[in-house]
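User: Can you predict the 3D structure of Cupin domain-containing protein? Sequence below.
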Amino acid sequence: MNIDFGKTALSVIPNFKGGEKEMSSRMYSDGMNKIMKNTLAPGASIGMHTHEDSSEIIFITSGRGSVICDGVKEPVYAGLCHYCPKGHTHSLINDSDEDLEFLAVVPVQ
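Assistant: Sure. Here are the predicted structure tokens for Cupin domain-containing protein:
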């Protein structure tokens, strides 16, 4: 199965999970997984949150930024994959001067 994100609705979500600015997102969900193509503009972030019921996989496709996972801040950049296991806490921050684009996959429980 192929997913053409160009044919999915664009959602602009302000202060996602309590973060700064807004996230642009195109999403596909089949009831088992949410697969999202997202963009954070410079200075935007996804707020700190805990994955109580599932994990999250984030694959950076373009740009750079930082992730804070369980209190540890690390750089992220195109080609890198960040994994947040169930029960862990993380945030994604675009602290660069270019868009940060990424794919995110979250199993639906």
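DSSP finds no helices and ten strands in the chain. The radius of gyration is 13 Å.
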